[in-house]
Write the structure tokens for this entry.
Amino acid sequence: MYESDTTRFIRDLLKKHPEVIEKQKKHRATWWERKPDPAPVAQLDAAKVPRHSYEYYPFAGK
């Protein structure tokens, strides 16, 4: 079965340095596994402008 050089490199790296996996989990939790702050989300929702069905050609009645 074919295995690319990149895959082999990463597999060997993780065998030699298993602490990398723990660092990945820690940093993923830092940036991705958190709930968003509701204030900016509310501001974005309030600033939404209604869109037309097709943006490039405005309706004649505008």
In short: The helical segments are 5-16, 19-31, 38-46. The chain is about 55% helix and 0% strand. Residues 4 and 39 are 46 Å apart (CA to CA). The chain has a mean pLDDT of 84.
